[in-house]
Amino acid sequence: MMPELSRAAAVALAAEQAATSRNRLLTAPALAVITVFGILPLIIIGVYSFLKAAAYGGVVWEFSTDGYLNFLFQRDIFDDSLQFAPDYLIIYLRTLIYSVATTAICLLVGYPTAYYMATRPPAQRNWWVLLITIPFWSNLLVRTLAIMFIIRDEGLINALLIWLRVIDKPITMLYTNFAIMLGLLYSFLPFMVLPLYASLEKLDFRMVEAGHDLYANKRQVLWRIIIPLSMPGIVAGCLLVFIPALGSYVTPLILGGGIHLMIGDLIAQQFGVGRNWPLGSAQALILMAVVLIALYFYVRNTSGQVKHG
Amino acid sequence: MAAGQSAIEARGVTKIFQGAEQQSFKALDNVSVTIRENEFFTLLGPSGCGKTTLLRLIAGFDFPTEGEILLYGRDIAPLPPFKRPVNTVFQNYALFPHMTVGQNIGFGLEMLGKPRPAIEARVAEMLRLVRMEELRNRKTSQISGGQQQRVALARALAPQPKVLLLDEPLSALDYKLRKDMQIELKRLQHETGITFIFVTHDQEEALTMSDRIAVMSKGKILQVGSPHDIYDRPSERFVANFIGETNFIEATVSGTANGQASVRLSNGAAISAGVPEGFTPSGKVTVVVRPEHADITGDRARSTMTGSLSNIVYFGTDTHYHVKLDGGGEFVVRRQNSRVGGTTHEVGEAIGVAFEEGAAQVLRD
Q1: pLDDT tens-place string over residues B314-344
Q2: If you measure CA to CA, which chain A residue comes closest to B103?
Q3: What is the CATH number of domain B6-232?
Q4: Is A306 in the B-facing interface, judged by CB distances under 8 Å?
Q5: Residue A253 and residue A191 in one domain
């Protein structure tokens, strides 16, 4: 009895192992892409951030921590001493505030939208999803330029308001914080709505009925049942908005007019006009560290919420 | 518990669901029924008969198109579900997956704004009632179907509702567990003294558990009565057919007196049959006789009908004898099996069918 059993077990185990190795093979293309275009550049950036900047861009192969030092300090041109320079830090802080605000507003605006979509009859829902994805059909740059034309001094809004005699001088909107926030909101809202919709669509609405049955009013059902149950969608949506928002480049460049920089523009500058690749690399890595730390706390907190509901 | 105050009363309730493109569906058609306090009342019918719709109207998830629903004499139709002292056990339990067993059971009390210690005590009491004390801190996904069923019951009973609504709560359980839960439900109803309104399509379940049953079909209530009434004295063909097996015999009414009709069967035999309340049969009617309310006998002279045995089917607890009647048609007799006595019969044998006294019942249609 025993030998047969163990032989059968061994055969089953071998089959299972063969299956997993086959499955691993299926992931090979994705792994190759991630390795070549994701991890390799990251290693290059990591190495560059510890090298010296060459005079006209590129790097000198000599170890240096200047990239990181320059992030917070400026070297005095006369006595070479390091002086604290918060300029970059301010840009980081501003980026963080923009991104958090974008995420929060996207969530506030996106949640009711997604809820509305998810509660439509099934046939209608696909049309709503299609409508939400319409912005993706055109290029982000084109869409951002379009916003520019709408909100600039001679743009659609100001022209209309002046024509209606509501105002007599145009309201300056372009190249302000408002313009950047508007642009970010517009670009990232679908990334919030879609995962929220996906999780709300799966929501078992009998839970809502059960909540009402157990004396929970509409607000209580929302906070105690619908929101906790759609937490995976909220987490996914927030991550999908927050992380790309941190690295946004085009929106602040065009709508902020280069006055209100965000991290993405700052890093691009180092590789362009700044001709300081090590500083750019260091800034990129610092951004990544910030994202990872933020992510860690965010996921830890929200998964806790799901657990304790 | 025969007569009591009315807990729920539906008066002329009609529910029309407006579908797409002018298609509307009448789920309930002028339904009136009174459910008494402390009663185990069952709405029985096939799927689509409107039983769940009626339950949802009582719970407040849907609102009647016409008519009113009274809870202890008060019209509750305009009240949202969270303002009705009525709780539901859902078909698939609808337990909150992000809460523990204890949190699920305490949810209703919490929403009612009860103080924390009172909630804790009541949750403990409910867990004891459904014998699940040790699972209080489990997630609802970590317990079995039968246990989920108990949690759903405890959750609905915890706020001490005036009426408990049960929407096919046992249909997801396997046979053995279902039998256990039937007994459990009866016990809970007895111990809590709460009015239970139970929805099922399972006639056996309805017969075993209910104080009274309403048989529904196509949005109407066809008959309301005790399991005994419903089974022995079905008033309509649908009821007779839906509950248990039965024999239909064509007959002609020759006279009525004292709730009994004298009828002449197609083979000429004159018998007396029960008549549904408030119905005066005349002309051609259909009479029903349950298979166990008749017996086969070798004494053809003293039998109601005669024929030959066409089939014998053994069921363990009993045996079905299919008799091919001399005048045409078939009649089934069920006889309880026992180790002693009983005559043996063979297929092809010429035989008589004898009705028990009062076995026959005239149908309304």
Answers
A1: 888 899 999 999 888 899 999 988 877 666 7
A2: A309
A3: 3.40.50.300
A4: yes
A5: yes
